[in-house]
Amino acid sequence: MSKRYKQLVEKFDNTKVYSVDEAVTTIRDLKSAKFDETVEIAMNLNVDPRHADQMVRGAVVLPHGTGKTVRVAVFAKGVKADEAKAAGADIVGTDDLVAQIKEGIFNFDVVVAAPDCMGLVGQIGRILGPKGLMPNPKTGTVTPDVATAVKNVKGGQVTFRVDKKGNIHAGIGKVSFDSNKIIENLNSFVAAINKQKPSSAKGRYMKNAALSLTMSPAVKLDVMALADIK
Questions:
Q1: For residue 64, which of 163, 218, 222, 178 has the smallest C-alpha distance?
Q2: How many other C-beta atoms lie within 10 A of the C-beta of residue 94?
Q3: Running DSSP on this structure, what letter comes out for residue 124?
Q4: What is the mean pLDDT of residues 160-168?
Q5: DSSP string covering 145-187
Q6: What is the 3-state secondary structure (H, E, C) of 44-111?
Q7: Which residues are CB-neighbours of 37 under 8 A, at least 6 positions away?
Q8: CA gap 88, 155 in Å, rounded
Q9: Distance CA 160, CA 74 (A)
Q10: What values do phi and psi take at 12, rounded to 5?
Q11: How far apart are the first and last CA of the chain?
Q12: Which is nearest to 143 in space by CA: 192, 93, 76, 79?
């Protein structure tokens, strides 16, 4: 543990469980990096994603965005391609985009696809999948309305997917954001997770949760309070 990290740990009670408001105030006091750190939420859910009916996955558009500039590539043709470009897509293509990806050129952060282009996308599924870039209807990235998908992604859409151990992790803003904006983003994200609670999940859905900055220790969140966020 570095000296800087030890000093940050001493700034708060790491045995305490914090309300959302308290946690946001606390982590803002933990800013130590020279760059605008990301506010990150991590949670562990009481689900077994090995069972398809317990896979927690989806997307939510944060009301105040993530603070990140997101580059969007869109697989679309004809009118849909024009709509994607008008909505602000950084790259729009079909076979040419497939070729670019096969060459290992990834000058984008998110991939959106019109349904009639999924056959093309399937050709590079083994490349996109491991990078977390494969479009999916559950995250709104496979849709006939590519323009809205592009606007959502650019406007602060966050996708989430539980891992094998039930963990979910996401960036929900920047430390430079006003506290109320961070709180509203957090509430929107947690509400989306709560909405995805599988009917087959037994007992307490959210086992634990924490808030942190890119370079800070984590502050524990009150999961009982988070469970009430709708």
A1: 178
A2: 18
A3: T
A4: 95
A5: -HHHHHHHHHTTEEEEE--TTSEEEEEEEETTS-HHHHHHHHH
A6: EECCCCCCHHHCCEEEEECCCCCCCCCCEEEECCCHHHHHHHHCCCCEEECHHHHHHHHCCCCCCCEE
A7: 31, 174, 175, 213, 214, 215, 216
A8: 11
A9: 20
A10: -150, 170
A11: 38
A12: 76
CA distances from 89 to 1, 74, 92, 105, 229 (A): 42, 7, 7, 17, 33
Residue from 158, 153, 152, 84 nearest 114 by CA: 84
Per-residue model confidence (pLDDT) at position 202: 84
- Top pLDDT among 93 and 9 is at 93
Q: Is 145 exposed, middle or buried (0-12, 13-18, 19+ CB in 10 A)?
A: middle
The CA radius of gyration of the chain, in Å to the nearest whole number, is: 19
Q: Copy the structure tokens of residue 102.
A: 């096969």
CA distance 183 to 168: 18
Specify the pLDDT at position 4. 84
pLDDT of the residue at 1: 65
SS (H, E, C) 194-216: HHCCCCCCCCCCEEEEEEEECCC
Tell me the pLDDT tens digit for each residue of 165-207.
999 999 999 999 999 999 999 999 999 999 999 998 888 999 9
Q: Which whole-number Å values give the CA distances from 171 to 2, 39, 156, 227, in the listed order?
A: 24, 6, 10, 19
Residue 152 tokens read as 């959502």
Three-state secondary-structure class, residue 229: coil
pLDDT tens digits, one per residue of 132-154: 999 999 899 999 999 999 999 99
